[in-house]
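tokens incoming
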């Protein structure tokens, strides 16, 4: 499973918007790896930010 898939899965399971730190805790990935995965997910439109510094899957 790729880092992007792990990040997206953690967001879906949480059921609420998450910050980077919480995603690192839930996935066990390195912070830099999470940030890189989130950048790719943002660019592809798979995640959105309902408010500053938190992210959730796009609907």
């Amino acid at each position: 499973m790729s880092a992007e898939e792990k990040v997206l899965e953690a967001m879906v399971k949480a059921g609420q918007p998450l910050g980077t730190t919480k995603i690192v805790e839930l996935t066990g990935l390195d912070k830099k790896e999470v940030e890189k995965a989130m950048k790719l997910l943002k660019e592809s439109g798979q995640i959105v930010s309902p408010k500053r510094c938190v992210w959730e899957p796009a609907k």
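note: Residues 31-43 form the longest helix (13 residues).
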